[in-house]
């Protein structure tokens, strides 16, 4: 089956550069489809045909195989456009051809339009990068706050552990042995259980702080 023969500049219709990626083409199509839908342009008889042309452009450029075929024909499409001296207006339809030969002017206008589309694409990418940077800044803030909370909890456990060690040392003196209060077996078990839980919590916090942050 012979490949389709294209005659329209679909890049110009979608207002993107020939280097635009799929996401840029899709975003431009959605923007133009909202503004050029026939329901919003009922006072323009040609709105339906222009919208159909916009759809055809998107269906072609969003399909990798069709876009490859279109790109192969694109130089000849541009050549015909310049030789005929037509361009596309804000509604996506062709302007009336000029009566005089303006081939150099046409080429320059086309070059300017392509560069402007590339600038638009770059600005879109810059906005996307800025949004991504803000998201990373937010994630970094949350990670740092989490580390601060873990350090605070760890410091509390370490303080309690140090107090336990001092108390244990004081209980082992001769004075405490003869005159200090004696703990019952139940109280001793509860004290040891609490100390064990605190040490386990301390180890967990130290592990969380040492683990790499995702």
UniProtKB/TrEMBL annotation:
Please provide one cellular component term from the Gene Ontology annotations of this protein.
cytoplasm
Q: Which residues form a coiled coil?
A: 112-139
GO MF annotation list: protein folding chaperone; protein-folding chaperone binding; unfolded protein binding
* Classification via InterPro entries: DnaJ_domain, DnaJ_domain_CS, J_dom_sf
Q: Which residues form the signal peptide?
A: none
Organism superkingdom: Eukaryota
Give the record's keywords alphabetically: Coiled coil
Q: Does the keyword Coiled coil apply?
A: yes
Specify the protein name.
J domain-containing protein
The species this protein was found in:
Hirsutella minnesotensis 3608
